[in-house]
């Protein structure tokens, strides 16, 4: 894995914080869904790192960086802002209510084989009006995390996850597995603040470039 500090230096240099009364008219709306929460910890790492904590930190960092670097050029809404359990219905209901331009669900992986590693992206197994766009966004997320952070890209898969089924007809939607907490190396990487920031920044930049390409209403 590349050092997170390198990607942070490069991206903060390329995208200095320049705010000049940014208009909020017709900004892309993105729903970020940190998985699990509350009594549902999700995956538990070999050293006790909890999936629910990692994904919430990444999501919160995306919100902070969106303001600090891009002065709020994306409208980001989290399905949870604290360690609370939100129903799957409410998670997808938020995207529907917002008429979101993209939906990103954040998770961490777990496997019996301790050597399993890398990131995975999922799109809805069923075909929808946004299936092709979901695949494009998912592929780009994986490619960028691999290019900038050297995270092993395990590719894009299809899954029958409820959050994807319910958003497939609303907007491009992707579920991102950020790494395996059952792998000690990846667990340590994901628990570090610079890594959290680097991952959040790559995700944010990828989504912004996607939206800047005209992929929103």
TrEMBL record:
Keyword field: Hydrolase
Superkingdom of this protein's organism: Bacteria
SUPFAM superfamilies membership: Zn-dependent exopeptidases (SSF53187)
CDD domains tied to this protein: MurNAc-LAA (cd02696)
UniProt keyword 4Fe-4S present: no
Name of the protein in its database record: N-acetylmuramoyl-L-alanine amidase
Catalysed conversion reaction: Hydrolyzes the link between N-acetylmuramoyl residues and L-amino acid residues in certain cell-wall glycopeptides
Enzyme class, spelled out: hydrolase
EC number: 3.5.1.28
Keyword Hydrolase: yes
Limits of the MurNAc-LAA domain: 92-208
Species in which this protein is naturally found: Flagellimonas yonaguniensis
PANTHER family (UniProt xref): N-ACETYLMURAMOYL-L-ALANINE AMIDASE (PTHR30404), N-ACETYLMURAMOYL-L-ALANINE AMIDASE AMIC (PTHR30404:SF0)
């Amino acid at each position: 894995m590349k050092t997170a500090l390198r990607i942070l230096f490069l991206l903060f240099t390329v995208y200095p914080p320049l705010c000049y009364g940014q208009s909020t008219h017709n900004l892309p709306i993105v729903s970020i869904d940190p998985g699990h929460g509350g009594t549902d910890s999700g995956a538990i790492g070999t050293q006790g790192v909890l999936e629910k904590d990692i994904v919430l930190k990444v999501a919160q960092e995306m919100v902070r960086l969106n303001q600090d670097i891009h002065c709020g050029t994306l409208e980001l809404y989290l399905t949870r802002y604290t360690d609370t359990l939100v129903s799957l219905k409410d998670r997808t209901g938020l995207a529907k209510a917002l008429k979101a331009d993209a939906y990103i669900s954040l998770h961490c992986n777990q496997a019996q084989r301790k050597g399993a590693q890398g990131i995975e992206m999922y799109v809805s197994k069923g075909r929808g009006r946004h299936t092709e766009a979901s695949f494009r966004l998912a592929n780009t997320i994986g490619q960028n995390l691999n290019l900038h952070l050297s995270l092993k890209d395990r590719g894009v898969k299809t899954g029958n996850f409820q959050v994807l089924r319910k958003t497939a007809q609303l907007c491009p939607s992707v579920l991102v597995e950020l790494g395996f907490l059952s792998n000690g190396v990846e667990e340590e990487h994901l628990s570090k603040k610079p890594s959290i920031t680097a991952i959040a920044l790559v995700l944010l930049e990828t989504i912004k470039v996607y939206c800047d390409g005209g992929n929103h209403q």
